[in-house]
């Protein structure tokens, strides 16, 4: 295969034996950048993500975006013949991605020490709820409970109401990014150093978002403060928040630096605030946040969304309308960046999905394959690559191995 033809990871072979969102999303990100990803699914059942909404009729609408660029092979790796086939596939695999509960693969005789006998250079990326070690290692873990465990949920919402969980699988997608990052980092080390052996990379779901909460750790460690629920960026920057325009639209504006506030003050024709000891630094503004918020809110309400956007863009103040998905579909910037693209679907015709990111100048990623039907590539991979005959494939299917 021509180097870089389909993206920077062209030529990298990945086996994805994971299910649902976090680890499979990581595999999809790698596939978008050119990696050849073979997804292993249970015969007659498949990835449980195939049964998750939203739906159109009987069609799961998440599947086309989350499983694109993969090839599907059905294989019951709990059965002896399935294990042997998996080991044969491992021989030509760079990275194996899995998210079974810790100890499960070992119980089936498919732990890393066993698999590396088939391929010593194998890299194994393991994602679980709470990681491979520690007293909680065997707990069942899904994204929303692990978000609560991470400390993230505790600070979301309003102080007079219960904590609010994210309205979608935020933690799973963040962990998917870590999955891809971990995989390519281990691959780089192996190939850069010509290490004759691969390694295991593992993390718990909760750890991906906990890593982003360094301000909580530092604040509690040094000041003994337990941060409580606040909406938006309260306690970080002032002004910051959601504001309503004259025509009833909502925008988010954040002044994370003093230089940004300086530009906002100029736009508001309130440069007097820059000389006022209550407002001239972020730390001072936070002490008088209610006053600052009223000044900014009252000023924003004088303008329509279009007027406000034009004025603040002119002064270089970060502001954005709060877009619905309908707004996004119609937005000129999303269209120019090709953030939404169409892929083929065997029954729906075409389905829109997010485009490939990030953009590479020399080796751009691409959507090469639509999301696969269950076992669609059995013959291509088990027959073409492993050399199993049609009769052998038929027998394995009869036994429920594939």
From TrEMBL:
It comes from the Bacteria. Its EC number is 2.8.3.-. The keyword Transferase applies. Keywords: Transferase. One of its GO terms (molecular function) is transferase activity. The keyword Signal does not apply. InterPro entries: CoA-transferase_III_domain, CoA-Trfase_fam_III, CoA-Trfase_III_dom3_sf, CoA-Trfase_III_dom_1_sf. It is an enzyme of class 2 (transferase). PANTHER family: SUCCINATE--HYDROXYMETHYLGLUTARATE COA-TRANSFERASE. This is CoA transferase.
